[in-house]
Design goal:
By secondary structure, the chain is α/β, with parallel strands linked by helices. The chain is built from eleven helices and eleven strands. A six-stranded mixed β-sheet has the order 8-9-10-7-6-11, with helices on both faces.
Length: 338
């Protein structure tokens, strides 16, 4: 039985590899779907969708990486289960990794799509079914998850509390809202701060892996980062981002709240690691011990940390197969279902 499962996974991996190759070729039919998704949700720009698709194809759908990743798990002999997936819609295809885990663990996905992101994933699933018949019948898009044996759901803190109650009688993995931070030593180069711009501005900062707060050494001038982030100033050409920037600036001015602002980014000293669109919070630390204490206090709110001793600048939105949301091993959860 185990040998049969391994053979099946070899076939699945080959199909996923071909899907990755298809994505990276960006054929006309995929380009058309990208455009359709943009018209349905203007936050999903053509550029941001392509950035996500490239990341999925490059980081998730490479044969060697898939084989190495899956080899870390002991295949069980349990019959396939129906896994309900409640997809978030904050950035394009944000739930793809969960579905990949469902496929690779030999289960079937019942997907409740977000209305913000309902174009690309069904299209890619249909394409994958054409590429490999092993995926036929492995994915269903549904409105209700009553038939699910287990649930994986991602949402806001309020949504998470609802999910915990609503799915209390099913085995579940519930994720709440998280944010990411960057730690400065004070010796960052212009190139590193430029790369940090990717962590801040990709997907307009709407992802849990986007940096929304800086931890700065005492007496560091936060406005010095502006000059190295100028490359990203065209973010205000996007009307939704610009509207948020203008609104948040106005609120801060009306309330006489101290802050800095240039033409595209607001800097505000604040303890919260979650910031509004177009706003980056910052906080000073006095020593390495002080920094450790501050990071310890927020460890359950942080998705990832960027910095010289952490994830490299510019790489927060390039997770590998082993980078699980909320640091909860999704594959371990799926293989451990009873």
């Amino acid at each position: 039985m185990i040998k049969k499962n391994k053979t099946k996974n070899v076939s699945l991996i080959k199909g996923l590899k071909k899907l990755g190759e298809y994505i990276l070729s960006f054929p006309n039919e995929l380009e058309e779907k990208i455009t359709e998704a943009f018209y349905k949700n203007n936050w999903f720009t053509i550029e941001n969708q392509k950035t996500m698709l490239r990341a999925i194809a490059t980081n998730y759908l490479q044969q060697h990486e898939l084989e190495a990743w899956h080899s870390n798990y002991k295949i069980n002999n349990a019959p396939p289960k129906k896994i309900g997936l409640v997809m978030a819609g904050n950035i394009p295809l944000v739930g793809f990794h969960d579905l990949l885990c469902v496929w690779m663990s030999g289960n079937t996905g019942l997907i409740k799509l977000s209305t913000k992101d309902e174009v690309l994933l069904p299209f890619l699933v249909k394409k994958l079914e054409l590429i490999s018949s092993d995926f036929i019948g492995k994915t269903f898009f549904v409105e209700r998850l009553n038939d699910a044996d287990a649930i994986i759901a991602t949402g806001s803190n309020n949504s998470a509390r609802y999910f915990e109650y609503y799915f209390k009688d099913k085995q579940h993995l519930i994720r709440s809202s998280r944010s990411s931070v960057a730690v400065f030593t004070g010796k960052e180069t212009s190139d590193e701060i430029f790369s940090l711009g990717k962590d801040i501005f990709s997907y307009f900062g709407l992802g849990c892996r986007n940096v929304s707060k800086l931890y700065l050494p005492k007496n560091f001038d936060p406005t010095t980062i502006y000059k190295d982030l100028l490359f990203y100033s065209d973010v205000t050409n996007h009307n939704k981002y610009k509207n948020n920037f203008d609104y948040n600036c106005t609120i801060l001015l009306m309330n006489k709240t101290p802050h800095f602002a240039n033409e595209f980014l607001i800097l505000q000293e604040k303890e919260s690691i979650t910031s509004r669109v177009a706003t980056l919070h910052y906080e000073f630390y006095n020593s390495q011990e002080d920094l450790k204490e501050k990071l310890l206090l927020i460890e359950n709110e942080v998705q990832c940390i960027v910095g010289k001793n952490y994830i490299p600048f510019g790489k927060s939105q390039q997770p590998s197969l082993n980078d699980y949301a909320d640091n909860i091993d999704t594959m371990k959860f799926l293989y451990g279902l009873k």
